[in-house]
């Protein structure tokens, strides 16, 4: 009977040691106050309500890890917001008989966001380079803020949405670094 108890004890200790030695990357992350990952992540962004609305409306976000949430914010939310703003710019261009300098400038900035900033951030994302992705998302936020300053009031809501998406994406990538 003593041998059986000793073997059971040894087996139990080995099992416990194995469980403790599993790397944290393979375990589920628990967040303060039992918040969901989306709620926790969005609470760390500059526009938490926009973040919550954007991520919760995306199918599958409730099963994503933080990298997945960053990818959704980058490849879906930022992309949609930039394309929506470009559509509005095209509508304003069609309504005008002569080109408006501020409108042309905003078109160029949103084109840069789509063709440069989002593409660079996506490449960094796929290379798991959260720093590079954060920098590119911040570049997009800068581009959109200069658009609003150069052509205020014409599509302010689109600029606000794009700024929130870019700043939130940058914040999530920053969380991934730390």
Automatic annotation (TrEMBL):
Listed GO MF terms: enzyme inhibitor activity
Keywords: Disulfide bond, Signal
Pfam family, one: PMEI
InterPro entries on file: Invertase/methylesterase_inhib, PCW_Enzyme_Inhibitor, Pectinesterase_inhib_dom
Isomerase is among the record's keywords: no
Domain of life: Eukaryota
Similarity comment: Belongs to the PMEI family.
Protein name: Putative pectinesterase inhibitor domain-containing protein
Organism: Lupinus albus (White lupine)
Phylogenetic classification of the source organism: Eukaryota, Viridiplantae, Streptophyta, Embryophyta, Tracheophyta
């Amino acid at each position: 009977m003593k041998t059986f108890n000793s073997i059971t004890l040894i087996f139990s200790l080995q099992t416990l040691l194995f469980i403790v030695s599993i790397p944290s990357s393979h375990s589920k992350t628990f967040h303060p106050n039992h918040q969901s990952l989306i709620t926790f992540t969005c609470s760390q962004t500059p526009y938490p309500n926009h973040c919550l609305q954007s991520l919760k409306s995306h199918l599958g976000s409730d099963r994503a890890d933080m990298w997945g949430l960053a990818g959704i914010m980058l490849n879906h939310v930022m992309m949609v917001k930039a394309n929506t703003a470009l559509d509005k710019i095209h509508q304003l261009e069609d309504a005008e008989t002569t080109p408006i300098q501020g409108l042309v400038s905003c078109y160029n900035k949103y084109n840069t966001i789509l063709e440069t900033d989002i593409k660079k951030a996506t490449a960094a994302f796929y290379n798991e380079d959260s720093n590079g992705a954060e920098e590119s998302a911040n570049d997009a936020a800068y581009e959109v803020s200069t658009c609003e300053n150069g052509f205020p009031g014409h599509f302010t809501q689109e600029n606000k949405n794009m700024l929130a998406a870019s700043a939130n994406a940058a914040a999530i990538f920053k969380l991934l670094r730390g």
